[in-house]
């Protein structure tokens, strides 16, 4: 396993840092920092660390921003991870394919979802219900654009 050494410079680059989780929001279990090999059975990435709920049946985890101890989002169980993946698959093409500015896309999404602070509009922070709303908004946007 790689050595866990946080870079102060990288920490400063994270615009909207979430606190290090200590309690799982899904089951109330304790949270530990682990190599992602504990989750995937193989180490992935240059910064292979994650936070994981110690309750195995909960199956909640989240990765970390590179060279930091800052979570990429909130701990997510299997259902929330699937919902986030689906939400991203509908939202990401707006900047990856359509060429829109990513920040503008998130500003638009925040308005559509009624999130007053765009800095709090992150799919990695959303629950399954919010992710379903992202999909609905994106589908409605495509229909209205056609």
How much helix is in the residues? 25-40%
In this structure, how is the largest beta sheet organized?
3 strands, antiparallel
What separation lies between the terminal Cα atoms?
Answer: 50 Å
Number of strands: 3
**H/E element order:** HEHEEHHHH
Number of helices in the DSSP assignment: 6
Secondary structure layout plus pairing:
Elements (H helix, E strand, L loop, with lengths): L7 H6 L17 E5 L1 H4 L8 E5 L7 E3 L14 H14 L1 H4 L5 H12 L14 H18 L1
Antiparallel strand pairs: 1-2, 2-3
Helix pairs in contact: 3-6
Keywords:
single chain, 146 residues, mainly alpha, 2 domains, three-stranded antiparallel β-sheet, 3 strands, 40% helix, globular
Task: Kindly summarize this structure in a few lines.
With 146 residues, this protein is mostly helical.
Structure overview:
The chain has a 3-stranded antiparallel β-sheet with strand order 1-2-3. The protein has 2 domains: 1-75, no CATH class; 79-145. The protein is globular, with a radius of gyration of 16 Å. 40% of the residues lie in helices and 9% in strands. It is mainly alpha-helical.
């Amino acid at each position: 396993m790689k050595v866990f050494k946080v870079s102060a410079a990288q920490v400063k680059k994270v615009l909207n840092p979430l606190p290090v989780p200590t309690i799982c929001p899904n089951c109330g279990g304790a949270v530990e920092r682990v190599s992602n090999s504990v989750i995937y059975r193989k180490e992935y990435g240059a910064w292979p660390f994650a936070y994981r709920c110690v309750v195995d049946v909960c199956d909640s985890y989240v990765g970390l921003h590179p060279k930091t101890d800052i979570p990429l989002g909130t701990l997510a169980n299997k259902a929330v991870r699937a919902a986030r993946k689906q939400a991203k698959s509908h939202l990401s093409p707006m900047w990856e394919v359509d060429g829109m500015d990513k920040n503008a896309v998130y500003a638009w999404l925040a308005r559509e979802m009624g999130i007053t602070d765009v800095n709090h509009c992150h799919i990695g922070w959303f629950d399954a219900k919010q992710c379903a709303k992202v999909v609905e908004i994106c589908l409605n946007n495509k229909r209205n654009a056609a």
